[in-house]
Amino acid sequence: MIFKGDEAKGELNGFLDAGSHIQGELHFEDTFRIDGKVTGKIQSAGDLVVGERGEVDGEIHVGRLFVSGSVKGSAVAESRVELTAGCRVRASIKAPSLIIEDGAFFEGRCSMVRPKGGAKRPQPAPAEKGAESAPEKHEK
Length: 140
Known about the structure:
The chain is mainly beta and about 140 residues long. The protein is built from no helices and 11 strands.
């Protein structure tokens, strides 16, 4: 994939090329790339890549979302959303992780939600026996 430090869940198993338009619902496994236009609902546990010439107008619910093109509507990702430089996003986004590169356009709302399964916050290490909980004071 073209995204920093991330491997796709699986092979690319779908592609909508520039000049093509789908209206309705799209369901897929693994990874799907859009360089054309989709109007409607997209649903998958896999990765959705909206290429530089890609457009989505509607609802998106996927595992991970990578946008270099245009998205309007709403987007929910189970693990992360990445908006790359040059993308145009006018949407409400819900995801536990949101990455917005310098040069990306985002207008809308964002809710940082925990992933399903209740991932817990890291807990501080337990204090040693007899240690004070107040910060140390240094004399001058």
